[in-house]
């Protein structure tokens, strides 16, 4: 309903034209009569905008809070995960072993490098990659590291969050609250008392008081999220300005590759076991 009212706000020219025909109210079409009546409401368009803002505010705050929270949690999960640190140490050791004598010992690598493991092919077995070797190594010596995804339940959702857009959405809420405040100030300065059935000011005053508290909590959450995100990027040697897509997206892609590689290793292991059983069976038949 509020959205429809916003669409039919009369322009200044339309209001002036309707004013010229105020003596013809009884003969006006219903639509024109409606436009005339709302044109007489002080600050009608501002009222409608603030009412529309009020209608959307709770959902917008909840949605923005959800995005900020998932990024904050993902950053916290990454920095706290001992399995992730163990994995990175293993990958670094593998890389230094493979590059020994060529580039010296590296002290670290970018998270995006994890996704290159699947591109490093074996010179012996065509379909085997460095990622497959890593999976086999983890399966035999570091099995707990394979539970890494349990440490990072929020990474996938966080990778989809655009911080720039989130900041714009928070800014839009801030501007909306300022407009509500200005509208309340305007009505406070009116010399003419409000109509007895006009509940706009008390309703919006109560809304504004609660909305400011909710928005303050959102702002605190957003600032905390940015600090956690920057600290997480620093902890893993990434640029402080790294976005969630850059920071969490690379890790999410690697986790998907790791899951796929594990499935491929399991399938290869089953094929080898089946071939060994078949070979033993054939040998037993020959002995008979």
From TrEMBL:
Residues 1-284 form the FH2 domain. Residues 268-288 are annotated as: Disordered. SUPFAM superfamilies: Formin homology 2 domain (FH2 domain). InterPro entries: FH2_Formin (IPR015425), FH2_Formin_sf (IPR042201), Formin_Homology (IPR051425). GO terms for biological process: positive regulation of actin filament polymerization. PANTHER family: DISHEVELLED ASSOCIATED ACTIVATOR OF MORPHOGENESIS, ISOFORM D, FORMIN HOMOLOGY 2 FAMILY MEMBER. This is Disheveled associated activator of morphogenesis. It comes from Pararge aegeria.
């Amino acid at each position: 309903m509020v959205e429809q009212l916003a669409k039919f706000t009369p322009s200044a020219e339309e209001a002036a034209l309707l004013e010229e025909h105020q003596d013809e109210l009884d003969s006006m079409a219903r639509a024109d009569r409606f436009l005339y009546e709302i044109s007489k409401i002080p600050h009608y368009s501002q009222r409608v905008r603030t009412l529309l803002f009020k209608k959307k505010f709770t959902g917008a705050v909840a949605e923005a809070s959800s995005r900020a929270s998932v990024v904050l949690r993902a950053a916290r999960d990454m920095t706290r995960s001992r399995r992730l640190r163990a994995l990175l140490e293993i990958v670094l050791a593998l890389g230094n072993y493979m590059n020994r004598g060529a580039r010296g010992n590296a002290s670290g690598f970018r998270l995006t490098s994890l996704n290159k493991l699947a591109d490093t092919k074996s010179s012996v077995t065509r379909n085997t990659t460095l990622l497959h070797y890593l999976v086999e190594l983890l399966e035999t010596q570091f099995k707990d590291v394979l539970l890494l995804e349990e440490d990072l339940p929020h990474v996938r959702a966080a990778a989809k969050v655009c911080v720039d857009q989130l900041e714009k959405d928070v800014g839009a809420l801030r501007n909306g609250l300022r407009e509500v405040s200005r509208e309340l100030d305007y009505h406070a300065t009116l010399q003419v008392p409000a109509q007895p059935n006009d509940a706009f000011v008390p309703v919006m005053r109560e809304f504004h008081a609660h909305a400011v508290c909710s928005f303050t909590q959102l702002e605190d959450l957003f600032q905390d999220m940015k600090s956690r995100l920057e600290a997480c990027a620093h902890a893993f040697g990434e640029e402080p300005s790294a976005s969630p897509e850059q920071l969490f997206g690379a890790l999410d892609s690697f986790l998907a590759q790791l899951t796929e590689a594990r499935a491929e290793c399991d399938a290869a292991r089953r094929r080898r076991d089946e071939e060994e059983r078949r070979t033993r069976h054939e040998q037993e038949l020959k002995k008979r």
